[in-house]
């Protein structure tokens, strides 16, 4: 397996030069554009890594699946999906227009920015600090990594420049999708996006989902099977935003990407996969990361379809 992963990473490394690191969050432009790495965690607990798998990056939109799990655990699925839809989008992840024209003012799904900010606003906690602490604690538990922290520079950078997310959030306040303090909800969202991880952390969270909500390395049940199923389904239809259809055809694995360059994948019953490659395509997905997953899916027959 390790040899296969190494071959696939090296074969696809050239793609990194075709992409760009995210720069709309200024601090993200410091990422290493050439990096490409992968980690696979199988359900019998084996781990295999290749390439620049030790590269650290911020979760960004990959955190949206963590907060979706937590929001459903806190509120139940009916309450979460009364505020956020479950339909895919053909617009970009930070689209404003969809919010007013589609889905009766509800964000289309929890994987785009509007839907994720609304989901985060539902997380239990008396104060924003308590909510962030709960998100961090949950992320550490499901990745088996007690050393996950917030990258303060990335957090500050997004907080200073996140005007588009601010617009989305205030619009949702006006329609009642967000009920509490808007700035506080945004602050929690910016912090969850700034959690710093490696491909291994993503692979482990993917393995939890692949294993129907049970941590493969301890046997501990973290989320009900139904919640794992809902999250994986939404990853298939919405996880790569407006590239989800193409990704489903070519790769066919429930996955979630982020503009930090990470992609988290869950192959049901088989493995979790974490990929890092900060050079992004025009839709904000890791350009070489997608290619790596395409090769791996084909060579190991991983498509769920
Ligand atoms: N696609 C992403 O990863 C977007 C996350 C980023 N923090 C934002 O809100 O813009």
UniProtKB/TrEMBL annotation:
Its EC number is 3.5.1.2. It holds the Pfam family Glutaminase. It comes from the Bacteria. Keywords: Acetylation, Hydrolase. The keyword Acetylation applies. InterPro entries: Beta-lactam/transpept-like, Glutaminase. One of its GO terms (molecular function) is glutaminase activity. Substrate binds at residues 61, 113, 158, 165, 189, 241, 259. One of its GO terms (biological process) is glutamate biosynthetic process. NCBIfam families: Gln_ase. This is Glutaminase. The lineage of its organism: Bacteria, Bacillati, Bacillota, Clostridia, Eubacteriales.
